[in-house]
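Justification of computing resources. Each target in the renewal requires a structure prediction run like the one illustrated here; the chain below, 170 residues long, is used simply to show the kind of job we budget for.
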Amino acid sequence: MRITFRLLALPLAIGLGCAAAPAWSAGGGGGGGGGDPAEAAASTDPDYQAGLAAAKAKDWRQVVARMGAATQRNPKSADAWNELGHAYRQLGDMDNSFKNYARALEIDPRHKGAHEYLGEAYLQVGKLDMAEKELQALDKICFISCEEYRDLKEQIVRYKREHPKTASLI
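Resulting structure tokens:
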């Protein structure tokens, strides 16, 4: 009986450890990496919170205004820079989008959300090879498959289906 219990408990313990693993990795799409004081400060910033609400409402100009203010007060918030890059991308301002994603990744090179959104931005401008590099980065960052990896992979598959000549050249 004890052997059976131990055999059942081991996979459960391993499974629970794996389920918790994504929370151990640094960075994230909008939630940050855990114990980073800059992200904790950003999460309580009223402009950051208003920017997140504006993003939910797809009010991209408001996101730019609010996240711009949040990054001025807390320039080490990779989450805020990532959201700012996302808003600029939605507005079609790719130069500012790329600059803000780069800033987020300079602060936190393992920021999953920034890698995902940067990959999507590369697809938006037709740079499949660069998007695939962001997917490879996510593959290394995510202990097991994470939402950001799956989402970018789905976007790449869709891009290849919609642009077969471009995909076959690369």
